[in-house]
Design a protein that fits this description.
The structure is a homodimer.
Chain A lengths: L8 H8 L3 H9 L7 E2 L5 E2 L2 H15 L4 H11 L6 H34 L11 H7 L12
The first copy, chain A, binds a DNA duplex through helix 2.
Chain lengths: ~150, ~150
DNA sequence: CTGCAATCCGTAGCCGCTACGGGATCAAGA
DNA sequence: TCTTGATCCCGTAGCGGCTACGGATTGCAG
């Protein structure tokens, strides 16, 4: 197999924007196919590999998990581009993202309010942040008899 | 050491809301002190340990890292409750939280817009999500000569 | 042909847990 | 007292998604 004139992994890394070690990692976990090799054993990629890697990188940037990307790559193959299926994956991910945002927004509100009270306290010079952390809120306490 | 009438780890776990294995993990990494032991080798906690664990749990819920909590625990010790130092840690964390929210909000916008276009496309039945993922955006490409 | 950059590979580490498994111990009931 | 069944012991490995290390090879320009 004439893999002699393929692209080296370093080249592919630079032009796809995916770190060299990460490319080898993706290959190891089967996210991208193993490329051909030179006689000396170095990886030699076809230009197509660049597109696949760029797809993966873009998906990671958008927060898709490796497993989601595995699914998307399958769905993206020319021939059965099932937009409907793709939408399902994307919407599930969107839901996750929104949940995370909501979580963080709650934290942000609590932290901002508390930090905001620092230094502006009246007579008692106790620390609002520490008070917050020492608050034993309801959750997780179901200690009972015995 | 009369550690005989201390609280068992299971009890502490239930009433602090921290999983049993997580408590052992915290002890292993030195986040909480090792408690006394019964004759048989079981951990026997003092009531004070409950407060410390609750503090840790609350901090984790608010997204502080283990190392941040280590710092906070030091600062929370009665005697030198340096509110100013605590505020520094909390503000750094707040900044992180806000950065994450901003990141996620950007993702959310892109995903929502894209998914929203699914099915409402005109003649060409291509998939907006796939098109998004196949877009090779500027970042990360600095392939040049040679 | 020489010299140095690039690549090879396997392994271990990061964070914050969680799970597993086989044995020891504890506490309550009979 | 004995027995049972719940609890706890400990070490180790795994999760996701990489990143880093390091010694040996290969590639390629001068």
């Amino acid at each position: 197999m004439r893999a002699s004139h393929g692209l080296s992994i370093g080249r592919v890394a630079r032009s796809s924007g995916v770190h060299l070690e990460t490319i080898r990692y993706y290959e190891r976990i089967g996210l991208i196919p193993a490329p051909g090799r030179t006689e000396g054993g170095h990886r030699a990629y076809e230009p197509l590999a660049l597109r696949r890697l760029a797809f993966v990188r873009r998906s990671r940037e958008l927060g898709f998990s490796i497993e989601e990307i595995r699914a998307l790559l399958g769905l993206a193959e020319p021939g059965h581009r099932a937009c409907e299926d793709v939408r399902v994956v994307a919407e599930a991910h969107l839901k996750d993202v929104r949940a995370k945002i909501a979580d963080l927004a709650r934290l942000e509100a609590v932290l901002a309010e508390t930090v905001g009270r620092c230094g502006t306290e009246g007579p008692a010079p106790s620390c609002p942040v520490l008070e917050l952390l020492e608050t034993a809120d309801a959750k997780g306490r179901r200690d009972s008899k015995t």
